[in-house]
Every structure is written in C-alpha cells, then in structure tokens.
Design a protein that fits this description.
The complex is a heterotrimer of chains A (282), B (287) and C (282).
Chain A lengths: L1 H26 L6 E6 L4 H14 L4 E7 L1 H10 L4 E4 L6 H4 L2 E15 L7 E2 L1 H9 L16 E5 L4 H11 L9 E3 L2 H9 L4 E6 L8 E2 L1 E2 L6 H5 L6 E9 L6 H11 L1 H10 L2 E2 L9
Parallel strand pairs in A: 1-2, 1-3, 5-10, 6-7, 6-8
Antiparallel strand pairs in A: 3-11, 4-8, 4-9, 4-11, 4-12
Chain B lengths: L1 H9 L2 H34 L5 H5 L2 E2 L4 E2 L2 H32 L4 H14 L3 H15 L6 H25 L3 H9 L4 H29 L3 H4 L19 H11 L3 H34 L1
Antiparallel strand pairs in B: 1-2
Chain C lengths: L1 H38 L1 H6 L3 E2 L4 E2 L2 H32 L2 H14 L4 H20 L6 H25 L3 H9 L4 H30 L2 H6 L17 H8 L6 H34 L1
Antiparallel strand pairs in C: 1-2
Helix pairs in contact in C: 1-11, 3-6, 3-8, 4-6, 5-6, 6-8, 7-8, 8-11, 10-11
The chains are: A alpha/beta (282), B mainly alpha (287), C mainly alpha (282).
Amino acid sequence: MRSCKKVRRSREATVLFLFSLFLCTGCFRNEDRIVTLAGSTAFQPFAEELAKQYMEIYPETIVSVQAGGSMVGIQAVEEGIADIGMVDLSVIPEEDERLLNAVAVAQDGIALIVHPTNPVHSLTLEEVKALFSGKATHWSQVGGRNIAVHIISREGGSGTRKSFDTLVLGESPLSRDAFFQDSNGTIREAVASNPHAIGYLSVGTLSPEVKALSLSGIFPSNENVLSHLYPLAHPIFFLTRKDPPLSLHTQKFLSFVLSPEGQGIIAKKGLIPILPVEKGRK
Amino acid sequence: MLLLGVIVMKGSREWQERIAVLLLGSTCCIALGVMFFILFFILFKGIPSLSFAFLTGAIEDMGRSGGIFPSIAGTAFITVLAILFATPLGVGSAIYLTEYTRTGPMARAIRFGVECLAGVPSILFGLFGFVFFVLFLKLKWSILSGSLTLALMMLPTIIRTSEEAIRTVPVSYRDVSASLGAGKWQTVVRAVLPSALPGIMTGVILSVGRCVGETAAVIFTAGSSILFPKSIFTSTRTLSVHFYLLAREGLSIENAYGTAAVLIIAILLINLAAYGLLYRFVSRRRL
Amino acid sequence: MKERYIGRILLLIAFSALCALLLISIFVVKEGMAALFSTGFFSFLFGREWNPDARIFGILPFILGSLWATVGALVIGVPVGVGCAIFLAEFVPSRAVLFLKPAIELLAAIPSVVFGFIGVVVLTPVMRSFFGGSGASLLTASCVLGVMILPTIISISLDAFRAVPPSFKEGSIALGATRWQTVRMVLLPAAKPGIAAGVILGMGRAIGETMAVIMVAGNAIKVPLSILAPARTLTTNIALEMGYAAGPHRQALFACGIVLFLFVMVLNVVANAFIRSHRNEG
C-alpha cells in the first residue's frame, strides 16, 4: 500500500513540476511578439518561408502561419484571432473593406491542371466554363479522349475558388457533380492521381505531378501572369484590421514582406512579387 | 457460393460443421490479416525514416524535409495539459458521485450529462472548442484552446471509468475504515482510492491514448503551426494533425509514414503502459 | 472540520464538471436552434440543396451520406467481426487467443487518420480500376470505416461469447450437437446482447468519424444516388466549412451538429433498449 502511494506521489510530483516549468515559459505572455497569419493555402508555403527568414533576423518574434483558405483569413482577422489575413481574391468583398486594410504583396494566377497523361494541352475560356458548369461532360467534347470529366473544385472558403468563379464561371453555377478539396495541395494530389480529372490551383503551387493547361495558347508562366497576358491573374492581399492599430511586430513583418528582400524570397520560391525592380504598387 | 449455401442448409451435420469452420476461419483470417497488415505496413514503411535527426529536427518546407520535433513536443504539451485539466475534475466528480451522494439531483444530472456526451463525435467538440475557446474567449489557436477542448472530450470518459473503479471497491473497506474512526475523506484517501487507483489510472491512460490520436478536435483549436511551441498561447501542430496534412497534400510520403509510425508507437506504448499497470496492481492485490 | 471543507470542495468540483457539460449542450443547442427556426425544420432536414452563399441549407445529402456510410460499414464490419470472434472463441486454442485479444484491442487505438491514409493509398486506386470514377465514394468510405470498427466488434463479441456460461455449451454437446450447431443455436442467442453492445459502439464510431471520411469519400454536395457516388457526411460537412462559416452559415453547421447528436442519441437509446430486452430473455 505504501509503495502505491509513493509511486503515485512521485508521479504526481513530476507531472506538476513539468507543468509548472512549461507554464513558466508561457507566463511571459508577451502576446505582442506573436504575429499570426491565417488564410490562403496558395500563399501558405511562401508565408512559411518569409516567416522563417524573418525569424532568423528577429529571433524574439514568433511568426505563426495557419492555412484554412482565404475566407478563414478574413474571418480570423475580423474576429481578432489573427493579425494578418492572407487572401487570394481578385476583389475584396465590400463588407470586409470597411473593417480591413488591404495591401497587395504578390501577384498570383490560377492555373488549370489535368493529369500528366491527358492529351489536351490548351483550352479556351469558354471550354473551361463548359467543363466546370457541367455542359461538357466528356473530354472528347473539348478535344480529348472519350472518357468522362471529373471536375474538382475548391470548397467555398477558398479565395482561389471565388476568383475562379468570378473570372471563369461568371453567372453560370458550378456543376453539381463536382468533387471538392479543401486546399491547393489536396487539389493537386487529387488531380495527380486521377486521369479523368481537371482542377485549378494557384500557379505558385504548381508541381511536376500535374500538367498545367494553356488558355488559348497562353501558358500560365510567371511572366505571362505578371504581364496579364494570361487572363486568370489576381493579386494576393494581406488584410489587417483598421482598428485597433497594428502591433509593432506586425508592422515590422509587413514591411519585411514588402521590402526587396521579402519580395525576393517570394520570387525565389516561385511566385510573382508585387513589387518589381522599379517601385510601383497597385 | 450457392453450393456452399445448399450444403449448409441441407447437408449432413459433418459437412455443415466443416463448411462453417471454413467460412468462419476465413473471415477470421481476413479480419486479422487486414488489421495487422495495416499496422505492419505503416511500421514497415515508417520506421526507416525514424532517425535521430527526424525525431529532433524542426519542421522544414511545410513538412517536406526536416524532422517532427515540434509536433512531438506539441502533442506532449497538449496531452499533459488536457490530462491536468480533466483528471482532477473527473476523478473529483466521481468521488463525489460515489462517496458523498449516490442519488440526488446533482448526481443524476451529472450521470445524465456523462451518458449524453460520452458518445458525441469529436468534430462536435472541435466545433464547440473553435467557437467558444478560440473565438469567444479569444484564446486564439493555441495549446490552451486545444487542451481545454480535449479535456472536455475526456471528461465524460474519466468520470465514468473512475466511478466504476471506485464502485468496485468492496464496501467492507469503507466499513472497516469507518469503524476505526476515520472521517469520510480519510476513508476515501486511505482506503478507497488506493484500491480504485489502478482502474482510475487505466481510464486516464486510455484517454491519453485517445488524445494523442485525436485530429478533428485539435486541428480546429490548436491550429497547424509548424513552429516549436514556446508557450501555451502559441499554436502547434500535433503528430496526428501533421500526419493528416502531410498525407492529404502529398508533401512527403516518407515523412508521412515516419510520422504515422511515431504516432502508432507512442499510442501502443501508452496502451501497453495501461495494461501493464492494471496487470501489476491486480496481481499484487491477489497476493 | 477539514471533512466539511473537503466535502464542499468536492461538491464544487462536481458542480464545475456539470457546468462544463451543460455549457457545451446549451451552446450548441442555442446556436443550432436559430438556424433550424429560420430555415424551418423540414426544409432543413429534407432539403436537397446546401448552398451557403445563397443561404440555402438543406442537409438531406449529408444525412443520406452518413446513413449509407454507416450502414455500409456495418455490412462489412459485423459479419466479418462476429465471424472472427466466433472462430476465436470456439475454434482457436485459448493460449493463442491470450495473445491475440490484447493485440486486437491495441488495434482499436490506432488513429483514424492512419486508416484514412491507407484507404487513399491502397483502396482508392483499386476502386478506380474496378468501378471507374475517381475512386472516392461512399463505398470506399464504408470499407475504411468497416475495417476501423472491426477491432471493437471483435473484442467485445469475443468477451460476449466467453461470458456465456459453460453449462450452456456442455449441455448442447451432451445432447449430441456439433460445435457449429452449438454456436448457432446456443451461443449466438446467448451472446446477442453483448454482440449488440459491440455493434452499437462500432456504429457510434463509424457515424462520428470525420478525418478518414474526408480523405476517401469525395466530399460532393449532391444527394448520393448510390453507394458508388461521392458524398459528404454530417461530420465531414461540419469539418470542411467550419473554419470560415459566419453568421447564419455557422448556425446551420451547429444545427448539423444537433442532428448528428440526435442520431447518436437515438442509436444509443434504441440499442440499449434492445440489449435490455434481450437480457431479460436470456
């Protein structure tokens, strides 16, 4: 009996000790030094890289990146649980514009992707619209093999989805037979494993596992997106609350992202910086 | 198939017996085969990735390279904190329910609540945790939000298993203690609890195992930050969340397997600890 | 003196636990009821369209998805699981079972995301080659869920068989029955309540599963017309949209949660009644 109690006591003691140790580290609840970004899965890899480089320069700051989709970003900033919302919408909704400041930090494009074995190389905007609204159900109708088309879209919280709906579908609704994925990465995976599939994602998240289609012959390269030759192009915004004013750490991180160094990091990882060599912001 | 059916229906008893054994044996082999295949498949593919660098390195490039130490730490912190919240609350309530008032409105209300919430899917706890802890209490995506949510999830189970464990302590223990002049609390601490302890601890340890494997409730409350968690107010990515994200986004199959292997090994060790504890105390009591 | 204080402290603890449990219920009900009233009970439960942007909330597709997936899981899990348990209980030497039973119980603790991953890597390609399509469907989800609930059903059924008094079996053998006849006519009826308990537990786990189902079920929002169709369940719908839902949309998700909770409650009540009635018979 006594050894039971001894074991229990020493176990309790160690647990209590560990807990208090850990709590002490959190006691310095200097919330200010935590900068939280949330939102676009398209920009997430770049945000992580920017965060990593920033924390090497300023080690006392913690820059934490959450994903979830652009709408999560907007929600999180409005509710006050994130400092910066990453959003890849072509246009910020009006009701959010009142509460939030928007700063463009990069330029992005929406690429249409298919399985690498798909013989189709290029589609027109009308053909893409027909495919995604369900009017064209087989690849043979747009110049491919006679197999069914599986449309893979993003769910409603995605900025990429909203931009796609605006720029491509317009008034036509998305086909009710669509499959849904919840991030750029998962759409890429879904298309890479399915020869019937067509999906869309940000040009920054393209990879060799999927084939990007040209639109009317124009390939979604960085140059074409930057020059707007490729029609599906839109900026990536950082949203912040107008009030309360930003913490010092958030401001410093923002200016880092917009600095030549930050923009260079974005370019190096494969997205298009908003600030080219000459100054100029939209 | 039809032939077998016919034989089963009309055939002689010996044939029926043989067919039955055959069918049952094959279902058993299929069942065990599939389950153990999954286990060994993950371990086989994942253990090669388990190097020291992997276990102690930081998460790099969204998980494509680097290690998983922040996840291991985050999982440990969230679980310990959740247990620290849930256990006193749960065991204390159980003691109150069994020793101080067996019937009565409070006891009935708690038991009803426990029955209701014990089977609730974890995503609902995630939804509640997100809206209440993260948004309403402004705790944001943090270890604190995650552990509070997990604590709520484990509370019904801990109350239930602790209550059962305390109930199985023979009445004679309490009677002897009372006859020696001990007060109620003294009886509880010195006579009842030590006997009930293995049962209580088993319940707690099994809940720990459930916490470690939990994804839905944690991803929405603790977030998915790849950084090493330096305080309980920062977000973190537990092992199961990291595995889920790696797997879904196809970022790195090797690292996904490695993370899964660590996860499974951790859970197996936790459950083995529970069984070992139970076995040791039970056999000791028999002596 | 100390006794009274301790008594009061414990009362406080119990009361806090009760408050915590009540808090969840009240919160969920309050938020969800608002949605149920504004959409109307019947149009919510039986509405075929879920379109948050247009404020249309009908969850019939998800109810059907949950039902199909769970029933499918049971169709796969129960015969195989109970059959396996019978074999282990009656036809396998007990020394082997001594090792196997704890091993099976450990398998029940494997996280569901692992099962989901195996489903994606192993099962989806198989489904694609057999049935065409993308491989992600309710059938795939049912298979994954079925395997997931196997350990639970097997271990609880095994306990139920072992709990049957040996005299039942001995009596049957003495009357000249074969082992299989004994199983069929004596063991199974006697163990029914226990098996039912295991099945209920498995069913609860299947209906509440989220992450594994997201990975393999396709996440479509249309009413699933067959088990080969992609679909969402009540759980996956909540998970997919929770991060960015606001206002009426979020309330609708809570209402989804209420429906899910009611399903689980009804299942438990029905099952417990079934078990109790059969226990009286035995």
